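QUALITY CONTROL LOG
STEP: pairwise intake check
CHECKER ROLE: data steward
CRITERIA: each record must contain a sequence immediately followed by its structure tokens, with no blank fields

ENTRY 1 OF 2
RESULT FIELD BELOW
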Amino acid sequence: MTLRAIDRQRGRGLLAAALLASMLLLLTSCGGSAARDLGPAGQDAVPSLPPTATPAAHTPKAPEDILPTVTPATISTAIPAAIPTVILVTPQGTAETAHSSQTVTAAHAVSDASHLPEAAPAAHATADAGQLPAAHTPETAAVSHAPATAVSVTVPAAAPAGPVIVVVDAALEHQRMDGFGAGHTSLVYAGTLGDVLNPDLRRQAIAAVYGQVGLHIGNLEAALLESPGGWEALANDNDDPTRINWAGFDTSSIDAMKSAVVDLAQPYGFDGYCLAQKVNIRWASPWLKELRTANYPRYLAEVAEQVTAGAVYWRDTYGIVPRYLMLFNEPLSGNGELDGGTTQEVVDIIKAAGSRLRAAGFGEMTFVAPNEETERQTLETTRAILADAEARPYVGVIGYHTYPYGSTYADINRILATSGSGRPDAQALAVRDELAALAQQAGLPLWMTEVSHGAVDPLSFDALRGRAIHIHDELVYAGASGYFGMFSMWDRASQREHFGNDDLGQIEGHIALIDNASSTVAITGMGYAIGHYARWIGAGAVRVEATSSDPLLLVTAFHDKQAGRVALVLINNAQNGRTVEVKLQGLTPGDTITGEQSTADRPWQPLVLAGAAAGEGWTLTVPAASVTTLAASTDSAAAAN
């Protein structure tokens, strides 16, 4: 589900769905091909560090360098803007504060999750954002994201007698990372609403999402609408699917995405995006449904024409030809965008659209598919696609979602109660084993392309730690090489237009929330969680084996041979601090390690480990309930040369 509806409530009418569709199109993610250099962007705005504190990966900007300090609007944020505090850690692991400043809060008017309507998680009326009319109310989407049963919380165990031993073995390599993203939205709408962000607010939002969090892949939620005049005139461009009549297509969504997002985000390294010309006969092209019944071959040809037209427009108008195109967003489940379609229909569309793209000169472009609502449905649909020898070559990435609402990895409280308590959900891990095996057998990367509705305040530290754990689990248990949040950004004006309320706290999962009235931008818990990885781990880095002696201390490790660095993300889920001894095998790190740390008080505090023993690893103390990223240079670059 791309924009997993911002309003998953069943009783919303066509207006919500339509607006949702337009939003949803904006929010589905597809990764691109270009590797991103995490180095120089924004270095001049980094809080000053001691002379030895040169970040091993890239030098991230602290939130206060981009986001203004303001007075809280409705409630004070649970995740204050990062403070330019540097923590020096001695070889014995004693933390000392080198620089400190007062806590900064970011304005937002997000209500507590307890204020959400009881039915909020029950239905998920998602449509591709951009594929829904701007001010028109389609029938409520019959999506099935019913919440799962409640789960009991396991109290974390007491601290172990000795230090936690973390072993990183660079010789045991796993997946190559593609990166971190979201469904990228322009927040520019047709009609009188237009661009809901003024230039300064857009600059802040772009800087936060792409400069600070570091998103560099994902799907551009902007598609050609087959209509001569917007959502009120949806119709076939002509009666010949072999000839594109450009007068029969509305290009405004793509044009807005190019000028309002792509051009502004490119200086921050946003270059790995993919197109999202998704097939949606439920909202965007309802006329296709009747044609499917009357003339199935002609239906497939018209679908292929529509997909190809989107790719051709990006190429011929803007010179943009991404590696991937997201073809579906829950075609047979959730959104049900094929509206009663079949598995065979999905296979047939892939063959027809893939063949048409090749004929149009797109020799390398492949699809991110099928992006079904659940892991199980993704497995079923993907197996059918890969079993067809003609369809298989057109698939470049296996995409999946982690619903229904209330399930283990959709709900933050369930994440904290399972993996966050040292007891991962066995069933959730089993289906990830199947996904990993399928991807490995097919030789395809695996991306988790959408999750939302975590049932907590989007700006809370629970959201940050919960999503950091979720990322860990998708990377370790599913072998995913890409992880996406919901939308790149969302604002009050869009919330009001689409759902008739100002509740930005209604849906957890977006990367940044924007308050139009106060002209402020707040990075969410999801955004901070992704940043702990994306700010330090570039495309092309390889996840290497990393183990922890304590189930409450989760670890992932990454080796970027070309950049010559190693990075670790440590998540301490215990309610007390842990002394951690990191032992490196097959790597020779420099003797200065940098990074950042998030606690309930402050996210992304810069860290410097002083006096680390070169070639042996290092020791540090991590606070209770914290997320820590560490990075160090290695000799791998020289060895590779």
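ENTRY 2 OF 2
RESULT FIELD BELOW
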Amino acid sequence: MGLLKPEGLGSAVKLDFNFKHILERQNETNKFLLGHLIRLNAIMVCLLFLPIVTYAAGTAEYASDVAPPQINIISPLKNSQVETGTLRIEVTFADVLSGINSDTIHLFVDRMEVTAKAVIEQEDVTGQMANAPWRIGYQPDIALARGKHELRFSVQDLAGNPAELRWNFEVTVGEGRLDIGGSNSLRYDASPVKKTMDTLDLTAQGRYRETDIRLNVTSRVSDYPGTPPDYYYNDYNFYYDDYSLGFYHQQSSLVLGCVNASLDSELLQVGLVMKGGVAEDTLGGSGGEYHWAAFSGESGSSYGIGSPYLYNMTGIGGDWRANSGLLLGGYFVNLGDSAGYDFTGFRGNTPLNSLGLLRFEVIHGFDKTAGSSGNGFTLHLDKSLTNFDWGLDYQILEPEYPDVGSSSIFNSSRRGMQSYGIRTSTTINKKQSLSMDGSISRDNLDNTLPYTITRKNITTMYDYHSESGFRLNTGYQGDFQNKAGDSISENSENNIMIIGIQQSIGVSTLRLNCNYEKTRYPEPGDTYEQLQLISSWTQPIGAYNLTPSLQWSDQKDEDGDWFKSTEARLTWDMKAYPNLPRTTIALFYRINEELDGGERTRINSYGVLPAIYLRIGLRSTLSLVYNYSNWAREGSKSRDGVDTTANLTWKAYF
């Protein structure tokens, strides 16, 4: 959770001291820390909606979650016009099944990443709900120049499903001037390893006639050996983590450094963040506008796997956007130079009058090392009515289509892939909404493998909220897989059900949530079940909010191993005074019990988690986040210990 930035202030200088002292820590503490990962859900809801069962061990590995996170734009809206360059950029996002992977959150402004300077927080004051909504907010240290700007936000859930939004807005006012701002943070760890880390963020923007120049630099220096540094001097390691220099003139731009490549493709799942350069230009005409872009640099690999391998990536693309809604475009991308891959694609959107909007993409990929090539094709038909939207999806990737990095949608070793899907969503009335998605896919398209995998998936979500303060969220996802061949016939399935209830009673709020999952593997009798529950009650008392909450989890596998966790927490939250933008203090007591391989252990832990954010005057803030946890392990390997962490941050604006 980051600092809340005072409105209307410009550049910032930050000094961050981190003192970490661990009195004793054993490897076994990882067991009781699992309680932090077990979120959701109230027992009352499960008694109403779910059967009472005994539950299985291990988390689900999230393999059954194939639905991407949901992203909502708060500000600025698509194609909107704003009258200030210091507007607040804000997005909310959530994944109700596996939850958000916080390491994959990225926000770009004009192809420059600003994630490190944004405030990212989960909208759950108790800190117990893994799939509670998230929010990211960013306000530029210096004003954005007048003209059009591009925003891009991307995130993945814990199952690796990616979601991304790109949109534009326009700043209608601005003046030519030079702005410089930045921040500096110093971190010192005393135990168990002594090390110092200093991080510098610098932003500068100026205008010369009609050309805007923007510079972003993020660098680090440390006295502790880690990854290979960019520069080494006298026991100090220097890193240039993020740097970019952009030139913007009307509808043209050139950005150098750590940038976001200009590539819009559904079938080529390649990481878009790269070190290199991007040049773009948009030419308008009476019937529409033509946009082209060229890029070159070193890029990360495909979505969803975080592979450390880097590709030399060079590409060019363009499209024509007609006023009638027609879009036609193409691209060429080279990965890995002479020993890599070439991809050529063509895509378009075309209105079909009363039938809706047709979107398509065709791609040809060539593997230079293997000397093989294959094609891919995807087609989407979207139709919107008054309160009802629906869509049809089709995709095929040929057996020889190159897989550049085992992307989340394709595995080349399975000899191609073909899928069909249908999407529906409707706003029943102002109080209710319903969405349903279904898909069928199969691989082994050339029948050269011993068996074919057929997969069926269905996802449905329902939301109801009334003016009286009652809200109901329910969801179901089922994933069914069949392996069939001459000597094999195996079936497996996974079912996930979530239920959330919220009721406002006067000024109080009651929340009950439940998440149930059951998996059946091909082996006879091999099943997995788990139930995760949480209940909370928020009661305003004067200028404060008190939130008692109870969390419970029970898991069990077919071998008789099980894991149980119970946690009671009391959270005190205050947003009472202008100079105290946010303050929380949580007291918790947790019991984790586990039976693993015949060895039974129990870990009791309790502690306090205060977080205080103090605004000093109008130009600086002070925050203190402290964590104290006392734990004891009972069993064949008895242990006890204390974990203590303190983070003190001071930030001044000018």
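INTAKE CHECK: passed for both entries
DESCRIPTIVE NOTE, ENTRY 2: Confidence is low (pLDDT under 50) at residues 1-61, 301-309.
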